């Protein structure tokens, strides 16, 4: 079992956990906002956020220095796109 949140904590400390929480929180807010405008797009975004949240409980999905995780996180970051 490789908990992604524990891995972030061990690598980056509480600051890393806070940044992950901020990114996931902003992604959730964006998904709910999009759901109010377009339910299909909002449901897709909400599914993405919930999947990222639950996947990292059992698997270390937040990898360090990998672009495949960086670009989706940038999309969820406040002020992006």
Any overview of this molecule?
The protein is mainly alpha-helical and 81 residues long. The protein has one domain (4-76). The chain contains 3 helices and no strands. It has helices at residues 4-37, 39-58, 67-76. Helix 1 runs antiparallel to helix 2 (39-58). The chain is elongated and about 40 Å long.
Structural class: mainly alpha
* Total DSSP helices: 3
Radius of gyration from the alpha-carbon trace, in angstroms = 13 Å
Q: How many strand units?
A: 0
Largest sheet: none
Order of helices and strands: HHH
Q: Taking all residues together, what is the mean pLDDT?
A: 77
Summed up:
The protein is an all-alpha fold and 81 residues long. Helix content is 79%, strand content 0%. The chain contains 3 helices and no strands.
Set down the secondary structure blueprint.
Layout: H1 4-37, H2 39-58, H3 67-76
